[in-house]
Design brief:
Length: about 400
């Protein structure tokens, strides 16, 4: 309800602001309809502005990219800030150092998922974009200790019915939740013991027990289902739903049970999402668009992909020890008329991207940071060839017990 109120407030406020540019004290003569709008604004103002007092609502906005004068959004825009005296509903003039409040709100109001609200599409060089940061800190387990960054980030794992990546072993222990999508349970059951040839297969399977198995359950074998059920795994049968994929069902479930995933503060790592049948791969890529507010990362041992949603300036940290050497930007959801990048060997400058025309593939990061701004959603892909080599070196020599 609060989100709807916030949107109503944003629609109602600009006309009042425009009427007050010449007068610091605003006392309009209101008709019946205007009086109702006025009361709505007076009621909603203290409630909506209080949203900005919580710093965690702005986790992705870099201070370097806030609008001029917005050094502290909570201080500037709370009811006690210099722009508002909400008790008497009088509006102070915008000073030389501040942009009009309606412009600030267009750029910095967070959405219901806790992410900054995207800006309108258009020439990306002439509009302000809030910044989203992307970093593959979950791949740090293979780095030397002196190269690892301190992080308390957590993630959820989702295992699909495809070849089980070696990466599973290294990601397992730090995952807050482990979900198998239907036949993904077969893959886990069959493949995990082969990676520990000198251990008892049953003991290995008990160590790598999923928390949840979910889907229409038309692929999981009966003995696999019974084994994990006996260990306490939650098994959710959605066989009545034949209109959505098992990945769709599992992502929706993760969003429902994990608050941080819903707010965009936690990644959902999908293993076995790239490779195999091409139609399955495209279905997995489609999930990035269906759940564009969720930070989904598709993974195999060779590649990684995630969505760069339009309306943001994306900063992608590149860990050259495991990522690369190749990357790409794919306009799968529709053509882009204006995409700009920095940090690539072949950068784009207000470039049009579309299938049937130019797409950026076999590109290469040239530093430790790539930035992307576009007027459409793009899929970022990066090869993990260096990671794959490290994985093979570590299997059999590292302590992989969760």
């Amino acid at each position: 309800m609060l989100w709807r109120q916030l949107q109503s407030f944003r629609r109602l406020l600009p006309p009042f602001l425009n009427s007050t540019r010449l007068s610091p004290s605003f006392q309009p003569a209101c008709g019946g309809e205007s009086k109702g709008a006025m009361k709505a604004v007076q009621y909603l103002m203290p409630k909506t502005l209080d949203l900005r007092e919580s710093p965690f609502l702005f986790p992705h906005i870099s201070s370097l990219h806030r609008p001029r004068g917005l050094s502290n959004p909570a201080t500037l825009c709370t009811p006690s800030g210099p722009l508002f005296q909400h008790n008497s509903f009088s509006l102070a003039k915008s000073s030389e150092n501040h942009r009009p409040l309606d412009e600030l709100m267009d750029h910095d109001v967070v959405n219901q998922f806790g992410l900054p609200s995207p800006n309108p599409t258009g020439d990306v060089s002439e509009v302000f974009y809030p910044t989203l940061l992307h970093s593959s800190t979950f791949l740090q387990m293979l780095l030397p200790e002196d190269e690892k960054l301190e992080t308390n980030s957590t993630y959820a794992l989702l295992i699909l019915n495809h070849d089980l990546p070696l990466l599973t072993l290294f990601l397992w222990s730090k995952a807050c939740c482990r979900i198998c999508a239907d036949g993904g349970a077969n893959r886990l059951y069959d493949c995990i013991p082969s990676l520990f040839p000198h251990e008892d297969p049953i003991g290995v399977r008990e160590r790598y027990k999923p928390d949840v198995i979910k889907g229409d359950l038309d692929s999981i074998r009966p003995e696999v289902k019974e084994f994990y059920f006996s260990l306490g795994t939650t098994i959710l049968d959605n066989s009545e739903d034949q209109d959505t994929t098992d990945l769709w069902k599992c992502v929706a479930y993760a969003v429902d049970i994990l608050h941080d995933i819903k707010r965009g503060h936690m990644k959902l790592l999908v293993l076995g999402a790239i490779g195999g049948r091409l139609d399955h791969t495209f279905a997995n890529l489609n999930a990035l668009y269906l759940f564009r507010e969720v930070r989904i990362v598709l993974l195999s041992d060779e590649s990684m992909a995630f969505l760069l949603a339009k309306g943001y300036r994306h900063e992608i940290s590149i860990n050259s020890s495991v990522e690369g050497p190749y990357c790409g930007l794919l306009p799968l959801g529709g053509p882009s008329s204006c995409t700009t990048t920095t940090g690539l060997k072949w950068d784009l400058n207000k470039t049009s991207l579309q299938f049937g025309g130019l797409i950026s593939t076999s590109n290469m990061p040239v530093g430790d940071c790539v930035t992307v701004s576009s007027d459409t959603d793009l899929v970022w892909t990066v090869s993990l060839r260096l990671l794959h080599s490290r994985l093979k070196e570590h299997v059999g020599s590292a302590n992989l017990a969760p």
